[in-house]
Amino acid sequence: MLKRLTNLSLKMFTVLFPSEKPLLFTGANSTIQLASLAQASGSKRPLLVTEKFLLQLGLLDEVLEYFKNEGCEVTIFDGIIPNPTYEVIEEGIRACQKNDCDSVFAVGGGSTIDAAKVIAACYSNEVGVEQVVGLLKVKKPTLPFYTVPTTSGTGSEVTNSAVISETTTHQKKFVVDPKLIPSAAALDANMLKSLPPHITAATGMDALTHAIESYSSVNRFSDAERDAKLAIKLLLEYLPVVYEDENNPEARQLVALASFLAGYSFNKSGLGYVHAISHQISAHYNTPHGLTNAVILPKILRFNKTVCADRFANLERMLSGTSAGSDEQLADRFIARVDALGQQLNIPSGFKELEAKHFDAITSKALLEAKSFYAVPRLMNRAQCKEILASISEGVKAESPITQQLASITI
Ligand SMILES: [Fe+2]
User: Which residue, 170, 254, 330, 363, could crosslink 385 as a Cys pair with Cβ 3.0–4.6 Å?
Assistant: First the structure.
């Protein structure tokens, strides 16, 4: 009964505070189209929020040249770090104030886009970071906000939220408000080519998890469901292509589109136990978000199958184009596809860092997160959660190369 009330209030929130999709440009060089829109909409002094290495790679040369030729005065803020802290964001706000910026143009991964959202919100509202932390705390519209993601996974270019870290405790804080959704975004294959295969794999599996968890949610919306299905189809087909051939611009473009669609879908329908458990494991052991999701996803698919066999069977029908077999059989085939994708991408079977002494704490926080924020199709109890954690820690036979490559990276 209580869970039904929570699900209803989650649905009410989405209906009362609708999240629109940003205007979207796609294709090679769509970054310039986005810059052109910003300029035509009145941006004369944009704050370019980005990461140092993107500037060093020369990926921003063209857009900087474009703004210069149009007579715009660009302020560059390249101080973004993974898991940006209050301090980093405050530095960005000061850069914005110093040059009286009139828009924010963010080029980077999920951390950059999240930080830029909060900078744009704090500057226009004339408040500090702490005052926008929480639900619906952004009173006035943000500065006009444009974004170009350079990774495909977080969906930050379409979502209404940003994650930031407290400077001293590094505790994660959420800013959630439909005003954070960018005005427009560009999915530009040229800006995505700096991604090495192991990051493509981890971030792509994050996008797949967004799509599957939102599709499995009982908080359903027809447009979110449509986008989730398309994202699942695109990711299962093109993620292995990009993993094998990072220079395939068509496949990279489609993976970026899938990430965008998955982001829109979970922004409306929410997530589930993969994210609820993954967030706690990452907090304890600093495992990368996408990779942690990828390890947990098959286990939650099997957990949910008892109530979602018809949903998973629908996905399998879409993917295979055939309806031969029972829902149960088709659902198994869908889960086998996800298993096969994980193997293709060298996703490990577990994390050897997991220690049984942390299972109680991880379980409590994961179940609370799911109960508070997600309209999950099947409720999990403590024993079931601990069983999943045990299977993750016991499942490791040998350390996968991707675990080593991602060991020090937080995505
Ligand atoms: Fe995620």
Answer: 363
Q: What is the pLDDT of residues 216-270, one digit of tens each?
A: 999 999 999 999 999 999 999 999 999 999 889 999 999 999 999 999 999 999 9
Q: Cα(190) to centroid of ligand 1, in Å?
A: 24
Phi, psi angle pair for 369, to nearest 5°: -60, -45
- Cα of 290 vs centre of ligand 1, distance in Å, is 6
- Report the alpha-carbon distance of residue 72 to residue 208 in Å, rounded: 38
In the reported structure, the alpha carbon of residue 263 is separated from the centroid of ligand 1 by a whole-number distance in angstroms of: 9
Q: Ligand 1 centre from 132 Cα, in Å?
A: 22
Return the H-helix or E-strand segment holding 148.
strand 145-149
The tokens describing 383, both together, are 């024993």
- Please name the CATH architecture into which domain 19-191 falls: 3-Layer(aba) Sandwich (3.40)
Distance of CA 406 to the CA centre of its chain: 17
Q: Which part of the chain has CATH 1.20.1090.10?
A: 197-406
Which residues, including other chains, have CB under 8 Å from residue 396's CB and lie 6 or more apart? 348, 349, 350, 351, 352
Q: CB-side exposure of 272: number of CA atoms within 13 Å?
A: 29
pLDDT tens digits, residue range 398-408? Answer: 455 555 555 54
Write b or e for each residue in 152-188: b if 16 or more Cβ atoms lie within 10 A of its Cβ, otherwise e: bbbbbbbbbbbbbbeeeeeeebebbbbbbbbbbbbbb
User: Which architecture characterizes domain 197-406 according to CATH?
Assistant: Up-down Bundle (1.20)
User: Which amino acid appears at position 17 of this protein?
Assistant: F
CA distance 155 to 117: 13
Strands 75-77 and 134-135: unpaired
Ligand 1 center from residue 293 Cα (angstroms): 7
Spacing, Cα 81 to ligand 1 middle (Å): 18
pLDDT tier, 171 (very low <50, low <70, confident <90, very high otherwise):
confident
